[in-house]
Write a structure and sequence with these properties.
Layout (H helix, E strand, L loop, with lengths): L28 H12 L5 H16 L3 E2 L13 E5 L6 H15 L7 E2 L4 H10 L4 E4 L4 H10 L6 H9 L4 E4 L4 E4 L3 E8 L1 H7 L2 H5 L6 E5 L15 H19 L9 E5 L1 H20 L4 H21 L8 E4 L1 H4 L1
Parallel strand pairs: 1-9, 2-7, 2-8, 3-4, 4-7, 9-10
Antiparallel strand pairs: 5-6
Helix pairs in contact: 1-2, 1-9, 2-3, 2-9, 2-11, 3-9, 5-7, 10-11
Length: about 325
């Protein structure tokens, strides 16, 4: 390799027809993350890189900022991503790159990662976390969903996870003790294959609203890509992304007196676009009763994503919050 540094090299674009490209400011943290992930995980659908980058942003910032109070009260930008794709499509490689950045940031010492749990164990893990935050990353998401239906010790896990996704108060009592958690955050990132995903879910998961908690990326097919040589500067790139993520966290901690957390503000044009989008989704929900809970709840995901996009784009941050404009909502 005759090049000393390939970090500015344009990655190969692997964008499926179903993917909507994010128009990100060049030099923003997420733009740099996606480009780096494409270089070090070549031949993977663009959306997998996006999901991992946004997951990191959500984990790093969701305890520090809330979405606009013009739309919802005390709504943190917690996104539960579930990526559904076939074997060898690149889910594992993009996950490994994401976790390399997470570990390099040092956040793993403040935000424990859990890959399997019992309801009591997960509540205890959150209660014991130094940040009152836990990142749930099951080995295979469909195995987790199946265990919640088949294992006695997982009884009530679906209902509990639905409550924890919204950060609601949880009180668990056993013969030995009682655990109460509030003001906490549970993040989620899961991957699975299409066949296992479809078998592990039921109509009840849709009707009860359990499934709408997840931001689902569904890619049932994959076209193999030729192998490409990786750039030589992997460690430096990962550390640079980790440092950038921590800088975003530090900026969010610079609050106005009397503020507990930073806040995202919606401009009037952004608010109008959001209301129009919400109305359209609710109309679709009326036309599709089976998917009503998922469609009607999708605008919450959009608001959280818009908040995260505003947080990561310089110079979007100011003391005490960020502004979400109409362009971001679009």
């Amino acid at each position: 390799n005759d090049k000393e540094d390939d970090s500015d090299e344009e990655p190969v674009d692997d964008v499926s027809e179903e993917t909507v490209r994010l128009e990100l400011p060049k030099g923003s943290w997420l733009d740099e993350y996606i480009r780096a992930s494409q270089l070090f995980c070549p031949g993977v659908d663009y959306i997998y890189h996006v999901v991992c980058g946004v997951s990191l942003l959500s984990v790093a910032t969701s305890r520090l900022i809330v979405c606009s109070n013009r739309v919802a009260r005390n709504l943190p930008p917690v996104l539960w991503f579930l990526t559904v794709g076939p074997s060898a499509s690149g889910k594992s490689r993009t996950y490994d790159f994401m976790m390399d950045v997470f570990e390099a940031s040092g956040l793993i010492e403040q935000i424990p990662v859990v890959d399997s749990f019992s309801p009591e164990g997960l509540v205890a893990e959150v209660a014991d976390s130094p940040s009152r935050q836990v990142w749930l990353i099951p080995d295979e998401a469909h195995s987790l969903f199946q265990s919640m239906s088949r294992r006695d010790y997982m009884a009530g896990a679906r209902a509990m996870l639905s409550k924890m996704a919204d950060g609601r108060v949880i009180a668990r009592k056993t013969m030995k003790n009682k655990t109460l958690i509030y003001d906490y955050t549970l993040n989620f990132y899961g991957t699975t294959q299409p066949e296992g995903f479809l078998k592990s879910l039921s109509a009840e998961d849709v009707n009860t609203g359990f499934l709408r908690r997840f931001f689902i990326i569904y890619r049932p097919e994959y076209t193999p890509q030729p192998w490409q040589e990786l750039p030589p500067n992997g460690d430096e790139t990962i550390q640079r992304l980790a440092n950038g993520l921590m800088e975003i966290r530090k900026s969010l901690m610079q609050l106005e007196p009397g503020m507990d957390r930073a806040e995202a503000d919606l401009t009037t044009p952004a608010f109008r676009r959001f209301v129009a989008m919400d109305k359209k989704q609710k109309e679709k929900a009326l036309e599709n009763p089976v998917l009503a809970s998922i469609l009607s709840g999708s605008t919450n995901h959009a608001l959280k994503l818009a908040t995260l996009l505003a947080v990561q784009a310089p110079p979007g941050l100011y003391m005490g919050g960020v502004t979400v404009d109409g362009e971001i909502i679009d």
